Hints:
This protein is of the alpha/beta class and 195 residues long. The protein has a single domain (6-194), classed as Rossmann fold. It contains 5 helices and 7 strands. A 7-stranded mixed sheet has the order 1-3-4-2-5-6-7, with helices on both faces. The radius of gyration is 16 Å and the shape is globular. The mean pLDDT is 88. It binds guanosine-5'-diphosphate.
Amino acid sequence: xxxxxxxxxxxxxxxxxxxxxxxxxxxxxxxxxxxxxxxxxxxxxxxxxxxxxxxxxxxxxxxxxxxxxxxxxxxxxxxxxxxxxxxxxxxxxxxxxxxxxxxxxxxxxxxxxxxxxxxxxxxxxxxxxxxxxxxxxxxxxxxxxxxxxxxxxxxxxxxxxxxxxxxxxxxxxxxxxxxxxxxxxxxxxxxxxxx
Length: 195
Ligand code: GDP
């Protein structure tokens, strides 16, 4: 059972990221995917601000837990953002995902009612290029009944390159423990054993 997480620091540029290399797990997702709510539920504290103004905060936030660090990226795909901002965001995240040595795995959060698009595929490709595992976290699972959930599961299961799929409801606290256990056992412990 991971203990509590604490806010460590924010970065707008890569040079501002922490230089010590604790194991890091990237948490990515479109605006409104439920990322802040999930991080707060994970941390058991309101450390991630829920997005009253989607797309406004362009920060990478680092949260330290006892065994690893969660790295919260700004939401992508917010249509009101300017082209320049999109490009800067893209550059920053691409560089981080491609070069960050401490990165042990990435979680891509998606509202379970949305489809996999080119944007998700691009993120997957960056991670694959450096053999970083990706878990897809389908959020707000309380919005689906069992048979709808099975349909969604079947759809996502066939995406090549996705290492694991999770259904999570942060508000109902369903699936969180399984997700945390997987991250710790498969990505954090494994990498420590292998290094
Ligand atoms: P972010 O923009 O990705 O950080 O998304 P937020 O965490 O702010 O969540 C976006 C919206 O989805 C908010 O209205 C949340 O209350 C809602 N939400 C988040 N998680 C859940 C969930 O597990 N179930 C339901 N029903 N709604 C959720």
